[in-house]
Amino acid sequence: MRIKVINPNTTAGMTAKIGEAARLVAAPGTDILAVNPAAGPVSIESHYDEALSVLGVLEEVRAGEREGVDGYVIACFGDPGLLAAREIAGAPVLGIAEAAMHVASLIATGFSVVTTLTRTCIIAEHLVERYGMQPFCRRVRGSDVPVLDLEETGSGAFATILEECRAAIQEDRSSAIVLGCAGMADLAARIERELGVPVIDGVAAAVKLIEALVGLGVSTSKRGDLAWPDAKPYAGTLASFAPSGGALRRARSLTNV
Ligand code: 5HY
Predict the structure, then answer these.
(1) Cα–chain-centroid distance for residue 151?
(2) How far does the centroid of ligand 1 lie from the alpha carbon of residue 147, in Å?
(3) Which of 97, 121, 151, 250 is most buried (CB neighbours < 10 A)?
């Protein structure tokens, strides 16, 4: 199977790291296509960044439909464009926040999310509500580490994030940590070794859940709100995004599942 892992920001170094984390857990026979849009924010740290990253996500999903991929991962902790992506995809689409929270809820009765800038905590808190994770999520914490510091060795990002995770275990009564940024994908194992509690990286969690959904032969229901968008013209620079009213993809041969 082929899983397209989309980094909604345009920092290629982070896309490469996300691809590595995905391949580390992918089953034999699973190909990981790690991509980022050509246009958009270099990092997503505000509602505005997130809103403007969605077009790039949808562009990559539309291309994936033409390529006939078997699943998609939106590798940004705000899960930008998740429901819109599900509308235009014939294959399952998961966001890393959604995947990480669900996995954490299966292995702990309480988890804390440790994310980047404190101003983005509200985005994660909104997702906690949307995914019904309030009974499990004890707290969303901002480490105030800028996203792109995660790309800089020597930035001190790891030490700061580790201390925030340690505080979460000691103060939030949490017994697991959810990492609140795709750029933290390579830190999970080190933090877990230091703290001795499960540390969930959403990229890995989403890849394994997509494999499970494909293995079950299930995908997004095309009845109701996630049905293909109705055909209509789009004006101006977005004319090429006009929905066709049906599937973009070629008929998938079941042999590559
Ligand atoms: C992410 N931003 O996963 C989010 C994290 C955040 O560029 N990739 C980003 O701060 O919300």
Answers:
(1) 18
(2) 6
(3) 97
pLDDT tier at 247, thresholds 50, 70, 90: confident
Ligand 1: which atom is nearest the Cα of residue 184? Answer: 3
Is the predicted pLDDT of residue 70 greater than 60, yes or no?
yes
pLDDT at 208 over 50: yes
- How far apart CA 86 and CA 88 sit, in angstroms, is 6
Query: In Å, how far are 77, 150, 160, 177, 225 from 156, measured between CA atoms?
Result: 21, 9, 6, 20, 44
Alpha helices in 8-95 (DSSP H): 12-25, 47-67, 82-88
Determine how many CB atoms are found less than 10 A away from the CB of residue 46: 15
Angle ∠(83,203,76) on CA atoms, nearest 5: 50
User: Position of tokens 């968008």?
Assistant: 229
Task: Give the alpha-carbon dihedral of 77, 81, 86, 91, to 10 degrees.
Answer: -60
Ligand 1 atom with the smallest distance to the CA of 9 is 7
Which carries the bigger pLDDT value, residue 12 or residue 248?
12
Residues with C-beta less than 6 Å from any ligand 1 atom: 9, 43-45, 76-78, 115-117, 120, 123, 147, 181-183
43 C-alpha to ligand 1 centroid (Å): 7
Closest ligand 1 atom to the C-alpha of 11? 7
**Tens digits of per-residue pLDDT, 129-172?**
999 999 999 999 999 999 999 999 889 999 999 999 999 999 99
Residue position matching structure tokens 């055909």 = 231
Ligand 1 centroid, distance to 68 Cα (angstroms): 27
Closest to 123 (Cα-Cα) out of 197, 165, 180, 167: 180
